[in-house]
Design a protein that fits this description.
By secondary structure, the protein is of the alpha+beta class. It is built from 9 helices and 21 strands.
């Protein structure tokens, strides 16, 4: 279940950037030589970032990864990086193989920030030797690009800020150009200071054992017709927006698939004026909400509930996906577009193993005769539900399969 998901070349330098940095800081050189005292980062060892790092191995390569929380990043870098939308990712790469390895930071964030760019963005209040010390600090602490045989190198990549669990790749390429020495890692790292909404849900206690129902994939088209069709008004019996997506996956795979595809967790403690007005399905608010940003204020929102049904031993999740944003009433009304957008995002995110359409004319709401949801917004839909099987590990786009249960809306094809 989701609540249990996360159990689990520069200047020819040959010494770890972080090891070197710790030595500099502990000796006080950076603090005293030509610095005014206003730039005062702390030693990386004082934060606990390294000690909680996750570790992965592939052949002769070991990668460790960790992500500082907002307060930790401010202490390490002596600057409020999170306020600028910058999230540092700490990496350590050990090369026990025979060839030179090259790390590609664009795999971690294709639009990553250069170290001196980060320093420049935080230059206000610094001048002279103090500014130079800050620039040197960011240059020295960045992750080196080259790891030679027998070396262990570490440092930071400055990525864009993602709320919640941080998902990222670490791509490493061998110098022999054969492809036999290329390594690709995917990390899902919890970030201190953020508690996702699903962490507060005891999924094991949602249903009694007697209420759980096991079905096969062939039985799903019939069984889904008897699921509650819609979420309900939290204050009364009025019907809300329909359930337009069904997801089949164990909780951990579900989370990793969504994160890989750019859907971010939300927190119950985050300010949200609509929290008390969220719809109920089977009498409870969403077990989890994920959002995928589309600009500064527009976003697609996914509301998830765990059902009592298992499909071939995998959990069945019912969901609403909508466009939620300011000044976009027609987009909010077109819930089918939000549904179709989610299919494409999961497909391009290499998280989709197979999918199917489930037609139901009785669920259709014509464009020219929209209904009004409990939130007061009108909506229309073709009535089709989208069923998707998700994978926690990457799936090649060409490897996604389709069940021909229904007709792909509007397109008349079974491709995403």
């Amino acid at each position: 279940m989701i609540a249990r998901l996360m159990d689990e070349p520069k200047n020819g330098r040959t010494k770890s950037a972080c090891d070197r940095l710790v030595g500099i800081l502990s000796a006080g050189i950076l603090m005293t030589s030509c610095a005014t005292g206003s730039f005062t980062p702390v030693s990386l060892d004082e934060t606990g970032v390294v000690t909680r790092a996750q570790t992965q191995h592939q052949g002769p390569v070991r990668v460790r990864a960790s992500v500082p929380g907002e307060a930790e990043a401010r202490a390490i870098f002596g600057a409020p990086l999170y306020d600028r939308g910058i999230q540092p990712v700490w990496l350590e790469i050990s090369n026990d193989g025979p060839v030179v390895l090259r790390f590609a930071p664009t795999g971690t964030d294709r639009d990553y920030f250069a170290p001196l760019e980060v320093a420049y963005m935080h230059r206000a209040g610094f001048s002279g030797g103090d500014l130079q010390s800050m620039e040197r600090f960011f240059h020295e602490i960045a992750m080196p690009r080259v790891v030679r045989p027998g070396e262990k190198r570490s440092g930071f990549v400055f990525t864009h800020l993602d709320p919640g669990t941080k998902s990222f790749n670490v791509d490493i390429f061998g110098a022999d150009e054969s492809g036999d020495s290329d390594y690709h890692f995917t990390f899902f790292v919890p970030v201190p200071g953020f508690e996702p909404d699903h962490a507060a849900v005891d999924f094991d206690a949602l249903y009694d054992a007697s209420a759980l129902e096991e079905i096969t994939v062939d039985e799903l088209p019939i069984r889904q017709q008897t699921l509650e069709c819609c979420a309900m008004d939290p204050t009364g019996p009025e019907q809300g927006l329909p359930i337009n997506v069904l997801l089949v996956a164990p909780g951990r795979d579900l989370l990793q698939a969504l994160l890989r595809s750019g859907w971010n967790e939300t927190s119950r403690t985050a300010p949200d004026a609509e929290a008390d007005a969220r719809p109920r399905w089977e009498g409870r608010p969403p077990d989890a909400i994920f959002r995928r940003a589309r600009g500064k204020s527009d976003r697609n929102e996914l509301r998830l509930w765990l059902s009592a049904v298992k499909v071939d031993d995998d959990d069945l999740w019912v969901a609403q996906v909508t466009h939620a944003g300011s000044g976009a009433a027609r987009l909010e009304s077109d819930i089918d577009d939000a549904r179709n957008y989610m299919l494409q995002s999961l497909w391009y995110g290499q998280s989709l193993t197979r999918f199917a359409w489930l037609d139901d004319e009785d669920r259709a709401v014509p464009f020219d005769a929209p209904r009004t949801s409990v939130s007061g917004r009108s909506y229309f839909t073709d009535g089709s539900r989208l069923v998707m099987w998700l994978s926690g590990t990457p799936v090649a786009m060409a490897g996604t399969a389709a069940f021909e249960w229904g007709t792909a809306p509007k397109a008349g094809t079974t491709s995403p």
